[in-house]
Amino acid sequence: MKTEVLMDVRAMIPRERHPKIFAAWDALPVGGAIKLVNDHNPKPLYYQFQAEHAGEFRWTIVESGPDRWAVLIERVAQASAPAAAPGEPRPDWAVESPGALLDVREDLRAGKEPLGRILGEAAKVAEGGVLVVRATFDPKPLYHVLGAQGFKAWAERLSDEDWKIYFRKRRRASCGAHHGHEEDDGQDDGTVAMQGPGRVVRLDVSDLEPPEPMIRILQEIQSLKGEDVLEVSHHREPVPLYAELEAAGFSHETAQLGENSFCIRIWRKHG
């Protein structure tokens, strides 16, 4: 018989909810489920499941508010074994500076969505600057979001439900320069410079996983006008992209700068 655990957390103190939910999850067999009843959309809990239990669960919204939310969280696979390899060593740039710490732990415990606050603070970070986010778990989906905006990340676990994640904004680099000669290994996403009659829009997709690089490039070319040029930094030659560019009316040229470093220049065809 399928195991289904009913958890109505509406009367619980917010900071106690996630620990009790995950305690119930840890005891759940494959094929079992937790039916969670809450007073708000539990998006932060979903993000934590994505970060810590990807591939192990299925998430289905049964009731969608506004005052009562019910979600079925089914275990579809056993927990995977933890990686044996140690984490990356602390980089030199992973340090705090005054005013650069954003603590969202209470938001997460209260079921609030802190993504807007995080993105707002990230937008204020200068090139080479560091934003430190304090969270109750390692928010791996956030790495993808801020990575697309030119940030690299390093996480530090202080204790259960207490993490510090350091996000550093890369310094701008010219697509025409070999990355190995720069202070950092990338450039800001979407930076713009003037060159001749048109703009040069720079996009670094070298840290993104397929199909995200192609999606980002095809989105960015829609903003090109007249003599504008898009310069893309990539970790490989994006051969499948070329047919898409041709069909959309764009020309391109590619230069290999290093073993895993390519510069692709893209502009609108004329005539």
Reconstruct the topology from this structure.
Elements: E1 4-8, H1 14-26, E2 33-38, H2 43-53, E3 57-64, E4 69-75, E5 101-103, H3 105-109, H4 115-122, E6 130-135, H5 140-147, E7 151-159, E8 162-169, E9 191-195, E10 198-204, H6 212-220, E11 229-234, H7 239-248, E12 250-258, E13 261-268
In words, what does this structure look like?
- The protein has helices at 14-26, 43-53, 105-109, 115-122, 140-147, 212-220, 239-248, and strands at residues 4-8, 33-38, 57-64, 69-75, 101-103, 130-135, 151-159, 162-169, 191-195, 198-204, 229-234, 250-258, 261-268.
- The chain is an alpha+beta fold.
- The chain folds into three domains: 4-75, Translation Initiation Factor IF3 (2-Layer Sandwich); 101-169; 179-268, Translation Initiation Factor IF3 (2-Layer Sandwich), CATH 3.30.110.40.
- A five-stranded mixed sheet has the order 9-10-11-13-12, with helices on one face. Strands 1-2-4-3 form a four-stranded mixed sheet, covered by helices on one side.
- Strand 7 and strand 8 (162-169) form a beta hairpin.
- The radius of gyration is 22 Å and the shape is globular.
Strand order across the largest sheet: 9-10-11-13-12
Uncertain residue ranges: 81-86, 177-190, 192-196
CATH topological fold name of the largest domain = Translation Initiation Factor IF3
Task: Write down the Rg.
Answer: 22 Å
Provide keyphrases for this structure:
271 residues, alpha+beta, Translation Initiation Factor IF3, 3 domains, five-stranded mixed β-sheet, four-stranded mixed β-sheet, 7 helices, 13 strands, 24% helix
